[in-house]
Amino acid sequence: MRQIKFVIFLMMFTWLSGCATAPKSPTQPEPSLKRLGDYFTISGKLGVRTSKEAHSAHFLWEQHAENYQITISAPIGSGRIMIQGNDQRIDVQNHEDRWQSESPEELLTELFGLQIPISQLKNWIRGIPSVPHADATLNIENDSGWNVQLFDHSIRNYYVAPKKLFLEKDDIKLTLIIKEFENLEVENPKADRN
Predict the structure, then answer these.
(1) 104: which residues sit within 8 A by CB, 6+ positions away?
(2) Which positions ≥6 away from 183 have C-beta within 8 Å?
(3) Cβ atoms of residues 35 and 159 within 8 Å
(4) pLDDT digits over 24-73, tens only?
(5) Which of 61, 129, 145, 194 would you label with 135, given CA atoms 20 to 30 Å apart?
(6) Phi-psi region of 132 (alpha: psi -120 to 50; beta: other; left: phi over 0)
(7) The model's pTM
(8) What's the gap between Cα 168 and its chain centre?
(9) Alpha-carbon dihedral of residues 116, 140, 162, 66, nearest 10 degrees?
(10) What is the mean pLDDT of residues 116-134?
């Protein structure tokens, strides 16, 4: 009698475990991950450290092809800076003043006393070296004199962006921590006319 109960138990167990297995669906290839395109927004925290001082702030970066708008919000009471421009011009303003220049890096150096590689950052954020001979891995060495390290990555809607960028040149160390990002798809207006 024990053997019959055991056999019935095994048969029920086998039958139940077969019911619990989900039917296999045809395998779909996983979509490949893509880098951020020419239109994106990112936000996070920015840290700047030199041998003499250190600062941090929050930032929002909006990139539209060659044009960017970066809002930097310093800690409470320290104000906000808006930077707009592209590789040929830059406009920087705070609540009191406004500065313009045809050389983005020179103006930022003049205003803040440090070199900030604004023209290359849009590529580095996307994990792309700004010079053709640089290694397109997590470490970009000597790209316009900067050493760039990308740490970890976040994935959103099959787009990938680094969670952290560390840039170093001479005694300047910049850290960008990306908390949010979104790739902004641009519709093709010609497609709607057909």
Answers:
(1) 85, 87, 89, 90, 118, 119
(2) 34, 36, 37, 39, 40, 156, 157, 159
(3) yes
(4) 545 555 668 888 889 999 999 999 999 999 989 999 999 999 999 999 99
(5) 61
(6) alpha
(7) 0.74
(8) 18
(9) 50
(10) 76
